[in-house]
Structure formats: structure tokens, C-alpha cells
């Protein structure tokens, strides 16, 4: 982006250094650093290379302040987190009515890779399970595979504020081992729910899962949604504001695999996780959270990620339906040291 935006980002990072919120995040990091439960995903060899002690927490506020602690530069594959954002692009490309005719918005309570379609309408249940995500990827417009991929990468660039790349070995592994996803795609083709460019769409799906991000990218993406679709640092719009509501609604009801109900009950923030160990969570009108820690619980969600988001939500009253006074006032904690004089 322009020099002005770089300077703005630098200034906000300097301000963020001074805030008591930074000390809060440091403490949170220390609290969960030694948590040793969970297992790193190993369904393909590349993911099993992740170190269990990698841990990064990043917060980006809707006014563009960045707070980070731990391994926030470490790249990992976005995996299923891509699904929420691809859904947004599919809505922009096709409108709500058409997308709804192809993909429902009903939580399944089942594993993300279950081969199940709605019996009456033949639609996949929601865009966050694999079947629904393949159907939404099919809806991404463009003249051929290269242009469609370019549009997808460009969308992620708008959210993160930087160019992203695909991890080719992960993509190739996903493609080689992805027969279950292939089966879903053919089942949907059988019912006329996806177009017949199956190989192209599956490649795109595997590529979108293999995009490399870091915790700061995830925080920036969530902050962009929290900010009504405009990246708070670059000022660029990433998604038409009409569709932000749709994306975050589905994140709230279906974003955390088959633990989405429990997540909404305990944490109450629209979020999406991926088996790479990332979680992106949205506090609407306030901030975005990005957490990275590869060890997963049995449902596929980052264990440290869940703990961190639960604590932040509870301490600052960020649960969507919170009406009680929170222990800490977010504004005060963020602004407490937010001036170079105090630094
Ligand atoms: N690439 C994975 C798959 O299609 C998605 C894994 C995830 O849920 O993060 O199986």
C-alpha cells in the first residue's frame, strides 16, 4: 500500500507498545504457554511438521492498533478459516438468493468432512463444512482457474493488507489425499448443486486451504469484518458491507466445527478455526483476534486458541450477548497508555 498507510501502521504499533493491554496479552501468553494438551494435525505429513509450542496472539482494533505477542510472524496454512471469507466472495459474486439456493446456513453438529446433504433440497448444510465450502468455491467467478485463484488471493490481500502465497507442498498433498472431498463434489454434481468443472473447483478449494497466513493476518481479517468490511490499517474495503452480516452470522453458528454451540455459549464471538492451528474471532465494532497454536482438541480447534479467546471474551465482556459489567473496560485498557508521552 502507500507510504501513508505504512506510516499509519507503524504509528499504531508504537502506540500499541505502550498500552496496558499489551501487558494483559503477555500475561495471557504466559498463562497458556505451558499448556501441553492436544495434537497437531497429521492427516498430511506437511501439517505434522508444525511445532506444538508455536503460539502467537494478535489483536487488531477497528482503529488500526496492532498488539501482538509470541509467534505472530510464523506462517501456517489457513485451512478451513478460508471458508468464511470465500463465502463472502461467493455472496458478492452471485447475491444472497442464488448462494442460498446452493448452500444452506444450518449447523450440522457433525464433523466438518461428513458426506451429508440436506435430504429435501440437496444443499450442503452450511459454507463452513467441506461440502458447503466446495459448493461456495464453485460459485467464485472468473475466466478459468488462474483468474479465479487470482480473485481469491486478491480478496485475501484486501483483508490482510499484504500479498499472500500458497504453500505448494501442502496444496499437492491435499490434492493427492483429498478423495473424500472429491466424493462430496461428485455427490453434489449428481444433484446439480455444483457445476461440472469439478477438478478446477477442487484445485481451487485445496489451494485456498493452503494459503499461508500468520496470526497477525488472522487478526487483521477479523478486524476488517469487525470494522464493517474495511481493513482498519489500509483503509481498503475487503467485502461489500451488505454481506458482512451474512459471513459473521455463519461464523457464529458454524465456525468452530461441531463445537460451535459450545463456543457461542462460552465465548460468543463469530469465529472460524482451521486445522493448521489458527482461529480468527470478531468482536463487532471493536477488534479482531488472531491466535495461532497448532495442537488441536478432538473437534479440530486450537486448544490454546480456545482458552485465549475465552479469557479475552470474559475479561472484556466481548460475548455478543453479554449484558453484565465486565471485569475490565476494553477502551480504558487499550487507551491507558496510548500516547507517546506515556511510552
Ligand atoms: N483442507 C482440509 C480438508 O479439506 C480442511 C481442514 C480444516 O478443516 O481446516 O480436509
Written overview of the protein:
- The chain is an alpha+beta fold.
- It has 2 domains: 7-79 and 212-335, 3-Layer(aba) Sandwich (Beta-lactamase), CATH 3.40.710; 80-209, DD-peptidase/beta-lactamase superfamily (Beta-lactamase).
- It has helices at 3-18, 20-33, 45-48, 81-94, 96-102, 130-138, 145-160, 168-177, 179-190, 198-209, 215-226, 244-254, 260-266, 303-316, 330-335, and strands at 56-61, 66-70, 76-77, 212-213, 271-273, 278-283, 287-292.
- Strands 2-1-7-6-5 form a 5-stranded antiparallel sheet, with helices on both faces. It has a two-stranded antiparallel ribbon with strand order 3-4.
- Strand 5 (271-273) and strand 6 form a beta hairpin.
- Helix 4 (81-94) crosses helix 5 (96-102).
- The longest helix has 16 residues, at 3-18.
- The protein is globular.
- Residues 337-343 have low confidence and may be disordered.
- The chain binds glutamic acid.
- The radius of gyration over CA amounts to 19 Å
Uncertain segments are 337-343
Q: Please state roughly what percent of the residues sit in beta strands, choosing from under 5%, 5-15%, 15-25%, 25-35%, 35-45% or over 45%.
A: 5-15%
| Tally of individual helices | 15
Q: Helical amount among residues, as a percent range?
A: 40-55%
Listing every helix as H and every strand as E from the N terminus to the C terminus, the arrangement reads HHHEEEHHHHHHHEHHHEEEHH
* Count of spatially separate domains: 2
Q: Give the averaged pLDDT, no decimals.
A: 93
Secondary structural class: alpha+beta
Strand order of the largest sheet: 2-1-7-6-5
Report the top-level CATH class of the largest domain.
Alpha Beta
Number of strands: 7
Question: What is the architecture of the largest domain at the second tier of CATH?
Answer: 3-Layer(aba) Sandwich
Biggest pleated-sheet summary: 5 strands, antiparallel
What gap, in angstroms, lies between the N and C termini?
Answer: 28 Å
Question: By CATH's scheme, which homologous superfamily of the largest domain applies?
Answer: DD-peptidase/beta-lactamase superfamily
Describe the global form.
globular
